[in-house]
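Quick illustration, no need to memorize.
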Amino acid sequence: MALEFNCPHCGAFYRLDEKFAGKMGRCKNAKCKQSILIPLSSTTGKNGTPEKAGPVDAEKLAAAAFSEEPPPKEIKKDAPPKQIPVTCQFCDHKYTVDLAMAGKNSPCPECGKIVRVPKPVDEKPADWRNAASSRPSMAKVDDAPAGAWDAQRKGVSAEALRAARAHEVDEEEEPRDRWIRRLKRAFYGMAFIGMVAFLVLFLMKSRREGKQERWMEMAIKEVDDDKEGSKKPEFRAAIQRYAGEYFVRAVKNRDELQEALKHFDKARDGLQGLPSSSHDRNGMLVELGVAYVVCGGDATEINEERRLPWDKVHPLIRKSLDKIPSSEHILRARSMRMLARKLAEKNQ
């Protein structure tokens, strides 16, 4: 229902919604611009002229505006009972029930199952006179910061408890669980240290092997490039023997094995040009024959062609040891002892 009234200062006519009743406003007349207390009910007639009831009592309106009780509402007689729309959660049937059934259980007329009737939401316009609490509107409100201790609240907010980690209560740990936890920590620590040590050793080994291979390749290149024969045959034979033994231990397939065996052949061919009475020649033939043992392997290595069968290794050994003169019986006996030890390590 609209409120009709005149400005008490200049007489300007106003027609406002009743939700503005009791509030202060300012006259829109450019010549007036005075503050107006909006009355609780209309004070003009149908033609916009003031009613004959008398002047507006401003003090009475002000007292009514600041009172704790809201303005009386118009009671409509013979109004039809309000209905609440309900949707069945089982069959989606929509129907209405009386307002008195709000918050209660009601059977669905379609499927017969019990459905909870929702409570209606009373959407009222905001009223400055209606405080959020039941205290008087002019009562002091405690505006302490959230999460702060004070005498009124006697507590602290959940956000402050989580921020201070006070909600995490440490339960007493059983001795058995404590020992298990310590053993797990020790195990994980040792495993981590072991992994680091293994990685360090692997890197050191790889670096060492790479360095050895580079030095070996440099030595082979030096003797292969000696076209003028400035290096002694014993020196070149020793380098080729060491290279053959080194590369045989690192072979991964048949082709690499054949390349490694070529170094042994070069060492034997280089020693044959020396006189049979040379002690260096005969001693290096012994070492070469014993070094051939590294070319033999077990069944797995033979199947993968990373080693030679023993029936092919024995002739290679004899090719070197048979070139030792029979007069060197002490050296031949020593070569047999060395060869026997090497073969025993291979279970031969």
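The longest helix spans residues 175-224.
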